[in-house]
Amino acid sequence: MAKKEKIKPVVDVSTEEKIKQAARKVFTQKGYAATRTRDIAEEADINLALLNYYFRSKEKLFEIIMLEKLQKFFSVLLPIINDTATTLENKVEGIASSYIDLLTANADLPLFILSEVRNNPEIFIKIAQRKNFLQESVLVKQLQGKRADINPLQFLMSLLAMCIFPFVMKPVLQRMADVAENDFQRMMLERKMLIPAWTKAMLKAK
Amino acid sequence: MAKKEKIKPVVDVSTEEKIKQAARKVFTQKGYAATRTRDIAEEADINLALLNYYFRSKEKLFEIIMLEKLQKFFSVLLPIINDTATTLENKVEGIASSYIDLLTANADLPLFILSEVRNNPEIFIKIAQRKNFLQESVLVKQLQGKRADINPLQFLMSLLAMCIFPFVMKPVLQRMADVAENDFQRMMLERKMLIPAWTKAMLKAK
DNA sequence: GTCTATAACCTGATAGAC
DNA sequence: GTCTATCAGGTTATAGAC
After folding, report:
1. CATH number for the domain including A185?
2. How many angstroms separate the CA of A88 from the C1' of C7?
3. Do A160 and A81 sit in the same domain of this protein?
4. Which tens digit of pLDDT belongs to each residue from A166-197?
5. For residue A186, what are the domain limits?
6. CA separation for the pair B139, A162 (Å, rounded)
7. Which pairs with CB-CB distance under 8 Å and at least 24 residues apart come from B60-66?
8. Could you give the CA distance from residue A46 to residue A104 in angstroms, rounded to a whole number?
9. Quick one: A74 and A139 in the same domain?
């Protein structure tokens, strides 16, 4: 349980939580550098000084939000790829389904993480539990058992690409391909079926 | 006429060009908001005032660089997808090969474009020659001829994802999967073969 | 805990000498 | 065209009253 409030009505959250919610929104939308603490204060409907009272600095607040977001992003992946009870096909379905659900509700999450990691690689080390958690995963072993001739990272990268990239491209798609919000969501739902079918075909390809 | 130099030795470029080169580097590395005009001036090894003398403002300079980068990014795609003389398979090979070459030399190009478009959608309209240039392309028609039951955008999105996403993920990969620069480049070369094979399998999948 | 006022600093841009 | 010096405005952060 991340928070200690017993029952917290949605209409009356603590000031600290209001600031965090606002920070989540503004940071992910605009990125660290383009965000002013005033934007966050205004969004949270609180006084600017309170931000520093609760979080000391913009940077400290950002770090909290970023760690949260990284956690969110990877907590989808980790339990699935190391599940010894499921097949490779199950895992692919699970990853596609969970990521598409997560990103449908948080479309700006991947672009936020990726662009901030570029400017701030250090923060990324903090959450990376251990290096090579991908290569040492059950999924990779299953992959190698099935197709020893395929570099597992190549496959994994394509799988993640098909799940995540559409959300990174979303702003572009909406402008260059006239894809409305409805259409986009329908397409992402369809993707939950397409990705397992396509990756299955990829693993059969010679 | 922006410049009058006929032949310009690499060792002695004009001040204007030095500023542009520096701007290309700093803007793509850090993004618009995190870039200070002082960074660019320092990188270009010129006086800060000269930046404004030649380009009026940070924003104007950025616009020039961004248009250049968008041009670069889409000029790979446009001629290929509308070539009536090539097959669908040829087009996939061409896209994979050209994008991987382009991005190997300009790895931060996609993340730069994608993250700046988020903050500044207007500039994007300027270069988008016409909407729906994807849907109206020869490639989409060929796709529909082959598999009328597949949404061409779904296929195209996966194709571009497999070409571009690895470069967006590159900073993450290098930290979470311990992929060195050499390994990464080898993988991208391998991808030029994998993508045609995989997309072919995808189009056969039922 | 919350507010107002302000300090301390940074950044884009320009004036004016050369 | 290029430089130094500086301005004007904005930004983070804090001091101090309530």
Report:
1. 1.10.357
2. 60
3. yes
4. 999 999 888 888 899 999 999 999 999 999 99
5. 66-204
6. 20
7. B61/B19, B61/B20, B61/B23, B62/B23, B62/B27, B62/B32, B63/B123, B64/B20, B64/B23, B65/B20, B65/B23, B65/B24, B65/B27, B65/B28, B66/B27, B66/B113, B66/B116, B66/B123
8. 29
9. yes
How many structural domains is chain A composed of? 2
Tokens of A203: 């693993």
Question: Which pLDDT belongs to residue A6?
Answer: 41
Q: Domain for residue B1, yes or no?
A: no
* Position B123, amino acid: I
Tell me if B44 is assigned to some domain: yes
- Kindly report the bases of strand C lying within 7 A of a protein C-beta atom: 1-5, 10-16
- Distance in angstroms, CA of A44 to C1' of C2? 14
Predicted confidence (pLDDT) per residue in A139-156, tens digit: 999 999 999 999 999 999
* Residue B74 placed within a domain: yes
Which nucleotide across the nucleic acid strands is nearest to A36, CA versus C1'? D11
Residues B42, B45: Cα–Cα separation, whole Å: 5
Alpha helix (H) ranges present in A56-151?
58-75, 77-81, 88-105, 109-119, 121-127, 138-146
A118 touches chain B (CB under 8 A): yes
